[in-house]
Design brief:
- This protein has 428 residues and is α+β, with helices and mostly antiparallel strands.
- It folds into two domains: 250 residues, 2-Layer Sandwich (BirA Bifunctional Protein, domain 2), CATH 3.30.930; 93 residues, Anticodon-binding domain (Rossmann fold), CATH 3.40.50.
- It is 38% helix and 22% strand.
- It is built from 15 helices and 16 strands.
- The strands form three sheets. The protein has an eight-stranded mixed β-sheet with strand order 1-5-6-11-10-9-7-8, sandwiched between helices.
- A hairpin with a 5-residue loop joins strand 9 and strand 10.
- Helix 1 runs antiparallel to helix 5, helix 1 packs across helix 11 and helix 5 packs parallel to helix 9.
- It is elongated and about 90 Å long.
- The protein starts with 16 loop residues before the first helix and ends with a helix.
- The mean pLDDT is 94.
- The chain binds histidyl-adenosine monophosphate (HAM).
- Histidyl-adenosine monophosphate binds next to strand 6, strand 10, strand 11 and helix 11.
- Histidyl-adenosine monophosphate (HAM) binds next to strand 6, strand 10, strand 11 and helix 11.
């Protein structure tokens, strides 16, 4: 029998209390940017039919082919833990007839996603993403808005060395033609490709451009560029996107080999990368693009869409290593309630509730019986006001207030404590 290990699964981790401030900060910024651009929040289930992703992302991709946590339910449905958010959001849009709403329907989300990847720095099996999706509008202004919003979030969090890599991968009109050109280029160099890419050559040569193997990267460097083979429509669309980016003065670069690892993309694709001060890429934080054929892949009507998602763990790691600000700690208590004796503890707990009703943050240590220990705790928290509630005070319904800065003590009637303390903390 194998030994049970009481630890998280490989590639999964607890988000411990000390890391919550980072996630909270990111969520706050995302929510405010999303709100400003009129994106509404959506939550889709963690489990979906596996087909949602097979149809959307493509069977030949790493995500569907190798990384999905899929299994059969007791009812024999083939389901999986969601590896990404775009397909479920489109599924939801179609399922709820959102085409009847004013278009585009703009949605944002945040939550855990799952990919059975080889864990390494910045790559986990459970990770969090936030994402934006604008469905129902083909205008290039939407592409640039998604890029702008994605950039805004990172910028507001304090990232200073961001680069936006953009490309267009065409559509069903021009891509098949480009695939042929690409195939013939790679075919003549087949022996220099990794085994995965030799297979990809048959099914999806574009995927070779995405391969991280060094030998493939070398071959890729001389490959034809799709940008030179776009149809007129895709070309005009891309040109307009770039014009918007110029107008917004966003720091973008063209990356002619950026294809992204998901099949649903058409036209614009982009990634936002943070670099170190000396220009070394520190990983992709955000990825996205347009997906005009996704709705049709689900059997829906012809509905364009565009979106992006960012990996929150990657953002948190950089925020920590660079000591980026997480915002002021909200509601830090300025009052400590200390108690001594059984009756004082009971009455003290009731008083604590009264403070909560009045929305006044108060620290306590009801599990401690020694006054000394409680005063030490208050000191450690750098709290100015300590309310001392002893046996005598509890019997006579008053409380002692000690100013920790000056050491002076005064008495306050129990039924006046909340209102008097409210006045006091207003002044500091
Ligand atoms: P993606 O590029 O697969 O795109 O993921 C977006 C971001 O999620 C990545 O840039 C990375 O920061 C983070 N991420 C992905 N996989 C992992 C992992 N294993 N561990 C940690 N972080 C990870 C999508 O998911 C698309 N749905 C984006 C999109 C939205 N396109 C259009 N709309």
């Amino acid at each position: 029998m194998s030994k049970i290990k009481y630890q998280t699964l490989t590639g999964m981790h607890d988000v411990l209390p000390e890391d919550q401030i980072y996630f909270k900060r990111i969520n706050k910024v995302v929510e405010s940017v999303a709100g400003y651009y009129s994106f509404d929040k959506i939550e889709t289930p963690i489990l979906e039919f596996a087909e949602v992703f097979q149809k959307a992302i493509g069977d030949d991709t790493d995500i569907v082919g190798k990384e999905m946590y899929s299994f059969r339910t007791k009812g024999n449905d083939l389901v999986c833990l969601r590896p990404e958010g775009t397909a479920p959001v489109m599924r939801s849009y179609l399922e709820h007839g959102m085409h009847n709403l004013p278009q585009p329907v703009k949605l944002w989300y945040q939550g855990p996603f799952f990919r059975y990847e080889r864990p390494q720095a910045g790559r986990f099996r459970q990770f969090h993403q936030f994402g934006f999706e604008a469905i129902g509008d083909a205008n290039p202004a939407i592409d640039s808005q998604i890029i702008q919003m994605s950039y805004d979030v990172l910028k507001e969090l304090g990232f200073k060395h961001l680069t936006i890599e953009v490309n267009s991968i065409g559509d069903s009109e021009c891509r098949p033609y480009f695939k042929k050109i690409l195939t013939s280029y790679f075919k003549s160099r087949k022996s220099s490709l990794c085994t995965d890419c030799q297979r990809r050559l048959k099914d999806n040569p574009l995927r070779i451009l995405d391969c991280k193997e060094e030998k493939c990267q070398r071959v890729k460097a001389g490959a034809p560029q799709i940008i030179d083979h776009l149809c007129e429509k895709c070309h005009a669309h891309f040109k307009q996107v770039l014009e918007f980016l110029d107008e917004f003065e966003l720091p973008y670069t063209l990356n002619p080999y950026l294809v992204r690892g998901l099949d649903y993309y058409t036209k614009t694709v982009f990634e936002i990368v943070e670099t170190s001060e000396d220009g070394k890429a520190l990983g992709t934080l955000t990825g996205g693009g347009r997906y005009d054929n996704l709705s049709k892949a689900f059997g829906g009507r012809d509905t364009p869409g565009c979106g992006a998602a960012a990996g929150m763990e990657r953002i948190v790691t950089l925020m920590k290593s660079r000591e980026m600000k997480t915002g002021p700690k909200t509601d830090e208590p300025k009052i400590f309630l200390a108690q001594l004796g059984k009756l004082a503890k009971r009455k003290g707990m009731k008083l604590f509730e009264e403070f909560r009703d009045a929305k006044i943050p108060v620290a306590e240590s009801f599990s401690k019986d020694s006054l000394k220990a409680q005063l030490r705790a208050a000191n450690k928290m750098k709290i100015k006001w300590v309310l001392i509630f002893g046996q005598k005070e509890a019997l006579e319904d008053f409380i002692v207030l000690r100013d920790m800065d000056t050491g002076t003590q005064t008495e306050i009637k129990l039924n006046k404590v909340v209102s008097e303390m409210k006045e006091k903390i207003k002044k500091v």
